[in-house]
Amino acid sequence: MEKKWEEMSAEERREARFETWLSAEGVEFQSPEAEATYKASITRFKDALLMEKVPDRVPILFVATFMQPDIYGVTPYECMYDTEKLISAHRKFLVDFKPDFYLPPIFGGKGKVFEILDYLQYKWPGHGVSKESVYQTLEGEYMLPEDYEALIEDPTNFWLRTYLPRICGALEPLKDIGAFTDIWELPFISTSMVPFGIPEVQNAFKALLEAGNEAMAWIEEIGPFEMEARGMGFPSCAAGASKAPFDILGDTLRGTRGIMTDMYRRPDMILKAVEKITPIYVKQGVNGANFAGNPIIFMPLHKGADGFMSDEQFKTFYWPSLKAVILGLAAEGCVPWLFCEGSFNTRLEYLTELPKGSCFWIFDRTDMAKAKELLGDTICIGGNVPSGLILTGTAEQVKEYCKNVIDVAGKGGGYIMALGTAMDQGKADTLHAMIDFTKEYGVYKK
Amino acid sequence: MAGKLVKLLSDLKEPEALAFVEEALGKGVDPTDLLGESQEAMKIVGQRFAEEKYFIPDLVFSGEILKRIVKMLEPHLKAKKGEEAKRLGKVIIGTVEGDIHDIGKDLVVFMLDVSGFEVTDLGIDVPVQKFVDTIKETGSTVVGLSGFLTLAFDSMKETVDAIQKAGLRDKVKIMVGGGQIDEQVRGYTGADAYGKDAMEAVALAKGWIGG
Question: I want to staple A398 with a disulfide (CB 3.0 to 4.6 A). Which of A178, A314, A433, B168 is the partner?
C-alpha cells in the first residue's frame, strides 16, 4: 500500500517528487528520443544531486534573465511587452543550443502589469531605463525602521497595508483598509466593509483586477510553451522560488543601507523578523513544488556573500534562518537550488552542516577547488563560468575554463556545469562552447 | 581626551561617539579637532576593511555615524571657517551609462573622500560624454567607472574609447569595478586597472596620484 505523505521521510518525499517530475504527466513528447532526453536529463541531475552514483555526464543547468532572447536580437523591452517574440526566441534557443533543461521565460514578467500597478521598486525597459537595458532595482527603504514591530506582529497585514501601498502607486489606497482579521460576525461585517466603499480603495482593487487580467493573458501564452518545451525533451529547471529570510529583509524591505545599519542599531528586531518570516518562505517554496510537479526551488542569495558581512554577522543574522528554510524545504522533499552570486569562500564551512543530497549550490566567484574539497562527499556544487568570460572571451577560452572546472569540481560526480550569474545578455559562440564542450568532455567514463 | 573619538568611531560605537561629540562641543573643544579625529578614525576603518577585519556593513555604518557627527559639527565649523583640508588629487567616479546601481560606487566615493581625494561623483547612468567633459573641467587624473550589470562592459569600453578619442587617454588613469567586472573584462574595456573593492580603488588612486 502506498504510504501517506505525512508518514514519508524527507528522502521518500523527494523520491516521490522526482517520480512525478519524471512521469511528465500531460506532456506530449515529439518523439521517443525527446522522451528519452527528458528523462535522461532529470536522472543525470538527480545522480549529481544525491551523490550516490556518478551520473552519465556532467549536467548543465543555468539561469538567465534576458540572455536567450538577446542572442537573437530580441530586446529586454520586447521580452516584457511582446510575449510572442519572447517565446519564439526561447524556442529557437532550445533548438539551437540543446541545453539539458528548459528555463521558463518568466523572469522579466509582463511590462503592462507593472505599468498598471505603477510599480515603484524597480525600473524596467522603457520605464526609467532604456528599452535595451534590463530591469534594475531601486535601492530604498520600502520598510522603515519603525515598521519592524508591525512586520513581526503580522507579516501579511504589513505586506497588504504598508509594503504593497509603498511599492505600487496604484495600491497606495490599500493603506486605508482595515485588518482582515477585524472582520468577524454579523454585527461588525457591514462596518468592516466601509473602507471598500472608498473610491480610491476601489480604484486600487480595479488596478489589481486589470493587472490580474494582463498576468493571466501572459501566463496563458507561457503555459503552453512550457508544455511544448517539455515535449521537445527539455524538463523545466525549477518549480518555484524562495529566498533567504535575511535577504527578504535586506533586499526586499529595508534595502542594503537599511539592513546593514540595522545590524548595529536594532539587531534584535532583525532576529525576531527573520524568525517570523522563515516558515512563510518554506511554504512559498513547497507551494511552488506542489503546483509545478518539480522539486527544484530556486533561491537567489545576496547579502550573505563574502565581504557583505562578517563571519559573526553571518552566523548570527544570515545562516540560521537560511539553513531553516533549506531544511524545511528538504523535509517536504523539495530540492533548494542555492544560487550564490558573488563569492562564498568564507561561508563554505557552514554548508558542511547540510544533510547529504539535500540541496545544490551554484557558485559564481567561489573557489571551486575549496568547495569541492569541503563538500565533495555531501553537497552537489555547480558553476562557475563567469559572465565576463562568456561575453568578452573566445570559445577557446571558455572551453579551457570549463575543462579546468570539470577537472577540479567534477571529479566523481556531484557537479553541475553552470553560469555564475543570471545573465542578461548572451553570446552564441561562447555559450555553445560551454554547452557542447561539457556534453563531450563532461562524460564520465564507466 | 585626545584620540577618544578616534577609538569610538573606528570601533563603530555610535551612541558613545555621538555623546562624546556633544559633550566635547559643550566644553568648547575645537570642532576642527573633532573633525580631524573623525578623519583619523575613518582611515582606521579603511585600514581594517583592507585587512578584512571589517566588511561592507562596517563601512556603511561608519559612514552613517560620520554623517551624524559632521551634522553636529557643521554649525560650529561654519562659525570658525578654517582653510580647506589639503587634497591628494582629483578623481572622477560614476556608474556608467545604462546602469543605475549605486551602492558599490558610493562606497568607492566615500573611501576615496575619507582617504583625502577630491572626488567628483557623477552619479549613476552617466553618459559617455559626461565623463569626457568632466575630465576637461576638473583636470582630474583618475577616472573610476562603476557598473553592476554585464551591460556595463560595453558602456565602460565606450567611455574609455571616448576618452581616447578626445585626446585625454594619456592624461588619465582609468579604473573599473563592480558586479561582474574582473581582469578579463578590464582587458575588454581598455581600462588601466580593475579593483575588487573600495579599498583597492583607494590603493589604485594612491598608486597613480601618490599620497
Answer: A433
Of the candidates B2, B11, B199, B10, which has an alpha carbon nearest to the alpha carbon of residue B115? B199
Query: Given phi > 0 = left and psi -120 to 50 = alpha, else beta, which region is A425?
Result: beta
**ipTM of model:** 0.91
Distance of alpha carbon B205 from alpha carbon B122, whole angstroms:
17
Which pLDDT tens digit goes with each residue over A352-397?
999 999 999 999 999 999 999 999 999 999 999 999 999 999 999 9
CA distance A39 to A45: 10
Fold of the domain built from segment(s) A5-63+237-441: TIM Barrel (3.20.20)
Query: Which of A130, A270, A365, A391 to probe the B interface (max B CBs under 10 A)?
Result: A391
- All structural domains of chain B with their residue ranges: 4-79, 90-209
Taking CB atoms and an 8 Å limit, are B98 and A386 in contact across chains? no
Q: Residue B91 phi/psi, 5° resolution?
A: -130, 140
A357 and A15 Cβ atoms separated by less than 8 Å: no
B100/A136 CB distance under 8 A: yes
List the single residue in B with minimal CA-CA distance to A313: B57
Neighbouring residues of B92: CB distance < 8 A, sequence distance ≥ 6: B119, B120, B122, B131, B134, B135, B138, B140, B142, B143, B144
B:107-166 residues touching chain A, CB 8 A cutoff: 125, 149-151, 153
A255: nearest CA partner in chain B? B103
Q: Which CATH class is domain B90-209?
A: alpha beta
- Distance (Å) from the alpha carbon of A342 to chain B's nearest alpha carbon: 8
Q: What is the pLDDT of residues A51-75, one digit of tens each?
A: 999 999 999 999 999 999 999 999 9
Nearest residue in chain A measured CA to CA from B53: A310
Q: What is the DSSP string of A141-178?
A: -SS-GGGHHHHHH-HHHHIIIIIHHHHBGGGGGGGGS-
Strand partners, B129: none
Mean pLDDT of A197-206: 98
- CATH number at B4-79: 1.10.1240.10
Distance from CA of A168 to the nearest CA of B (A): 20
What is the distance between the terminal CA atoms of chain A, rounded to a whole angstrom? 37
Contact A310 B58 (CB under 8 A): yes
